[in-house]
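User: Predict structure, ligand zinc ion.
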Amino acid sequence: MVGPDGALPLPWLAGPLAHALRTQQGHALLVHGPQGIGQFELALSLAQSWLCEQRTGDQACGHCASCHLVQARSHPDLLVLLPEALSEALGWSTDDTASDKASKAKPSKELKVEAIRAAVLFAQTTSARGRGKVVLVHPAERMNMISSNTLLKTLEEPPGAARFILSCGAPQDLLPTIRSRCQAVPLALPDAEVARQWLASHQVAQPEVLLAAAGGQPLEALAWSKDGLDAVTWTRLPRQLAAGEAGTLATWPLPRLLDAMHKLCHDAMCVACDAPPRYYPPAALPKAGSVAALNAWSKELGTVLRHAEHPWSGPLMVESLVLKARNALAPRAN
Ligand SMILES: [Zn+2]
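Assistant: Predicted complex:
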């Protein structure tokens, strides 16, 4: 969101925000793009701009009473709907989620229908500060069928002054009828140099390495860095796997390990086809394995990924994955 100094914390969102505010029509927007580039922040900045009481042009001022309320996460005309599992990570936990935690229930990854119903009611009530009401749904693809249909009815017959912003990393997973009710606001990967400078300003060493590792998504790269994954570890990974060494990989969350392996498989294929790699520095990659072996590895990884949420036996799983990586990366015999 726009800060008290009127600036956006994610500088690459300034252009898309100005464009969305300029071209916005209707009462529902769908912000979509890759996960780690700030869809939620863009959606929040849009909401803040609509609710701002001292706008400069289209954009939020960052210092009026309404902007302060948005920054303090307590604006009475803004409802932010997040799955429980995400609300804490994004700093939007409410008393409700705290009590869920106390009950030791696993936080839900879905946007439940009760929450959508509450949002529909919220949208029908009168605006407290007179600038309408805004409902932000993130990530919209976490709505199940019942939740989606509940929201769809409201999008088809919007109540008075309410506006909806859906943000989404996988618009293909939304009901087509929901997509068709929303004005699309596409968000592309930021310019690599802007993202690199931003990461450097957040004390990320060799930011270009982690940025490439995260597929150009700076928020993802920063999250990895905060988790202790650095450029040196990432650069070492291909040769470590080619040598069949698990090392510290056993401590990684399984989805991250699978992601790193998928990217390595992709880059090894690129090398085998004389194309430039995307995620790892070229010098970090071992000599090309056989395309057939890499293809088979890619399929195996896909199968494991579909079950990655299951409670596997950790160390054995990692051992087997590392062995498969070593075999796939073995240099060609001829
Ligand atoms: Zn303001």
